[in-house]
Write a structure and sequence with these properties.
Elements lengths: L2 H5 L8 H4 L6 H8 L4 E2 L1 E6 L5 E6 L3 E4 L4 E7 L5 H6 L2 E6 L5 H7 L12 E3 L5 E3 L4 E13 L2 E13 L6 E3 L2 E3 L13
Antiparallel strand pairs: 1-11, 2-3, 2-6, 4-5, 5-10, 6-9, 7-8, 9-10, 11-12
C-alpha cells in the first residue's frame, strides 16, 4: 500500500479555502493578517483606452535587490484586473501621511478616480502621483495565480523617493509611525 492511499489525496493549498476543507474562518484570518502593519500604495497603469487606472494596494513588497524586483497582488474579481493584465508597465506610488484621502478615494470603485489628482506619465505611461513618498516604475516581468489573487512581479526600471512620512495601514485603519530616529545599531 502506498503512502498516498493511506493518507488520501493531498489538498491543493490554492484551492483549500474554496473547497471548504480548511478549518480557517476567512474573516478571522483576514483580521489576523490585519495585525501586520503595511505601507499604503496606489498602483497605477495606463489602459489601452488611454485612460489612467489605479487602486489602493497594501500587498506591495520587495522581492530582490539584484535584479530589482517588486510584487503586488490584485483580487481575481477586481474591476481593474484586465487593465493591469494587459499593461506592459505599472507604477507603485507609495503614499505619504498627507495622502490618506487619496488612499480612500482609490480604494473605492469609481470611473473618476483621477479627477482632481495631479500626476504625470511615467514609463509605459503609468501615472506617477504627485507628492508621493516614492515611485517605483516597473515593467511587468511575470504574473502568477495564487488562490483568489493574481500576483504581479515587476522589474523596477526607475524609482524616486524622499524623506516625507509614509502612510501606514493596520487593523483596518490608517496611521503613522510614532518612533523616533532610526534605531541604534546593536553592538557586537
Amino acid at each position: 500500500m502506498n503512502d498516498q492511499s493511506k493518507q488520501g489525496s493531498t489538498p491543493d493549498p490554492a484551492n483549500e479555502l474554496a473547497s471548504g476543507s480548511a478549518q480557517i474562518d476567512p474573516r478571522d484570518f483576514r483580521n489576523a493578517l490585519g495585525t501586520f502593519a503595511t505601507g499604503v500604495t496606489i498602483v497605477t497603469a495606463m489602459g489601452s483606452d488611454g485612460k489612467p487606472h489605479g487602486l489602493t494596494c497594501n500587498s506591495f513588497a520587495s522581492v530582490s535587490i539584484n535584479p530589482p524586483l517588486v510584487l503586488w497582488s490584485l483580487g481575481t474579481y477586481s474591476q481593474g484586473l484586465t487593465v493591469f493584465q494587459n499593461a506592459t508597465h505599472f507604477a507603485v506610488n507609495v503614499l505619504g501621511i498627507s495622502q490618506q484621502p487619496l488612499a480612500a478615494k482609490f480604494a473605492k470603485a469609481s470611473a473618476d478616480k483621477f479627477d482632481g489628482v495631479k500626476w504625470k506619465a511615467g514609463l509605459g505611461k503609468a501615472p506617477l502621483i504627485a507628492d508621493s513618498v516614492a515611485h517605483f516604475q516597473c515593467r511587468v516581468a511575470s504574473r502568477y495565480y495564487g488562490g483568489d489573487h493574481v500576483i504581479f512581479l515587476g522589474a523596477v526600471e526607475a524609482y524616486t523617493y524622499n524623506r516625507e512620512e509614509p502612510l501606514l495601514f493596520v487593523r483596518g485603519g490608517y496611521g503613522r509611525f510614532l518612533g523616533g530616529d532610526a534605531p541604534t545599531p546593536a553592538r557586537s
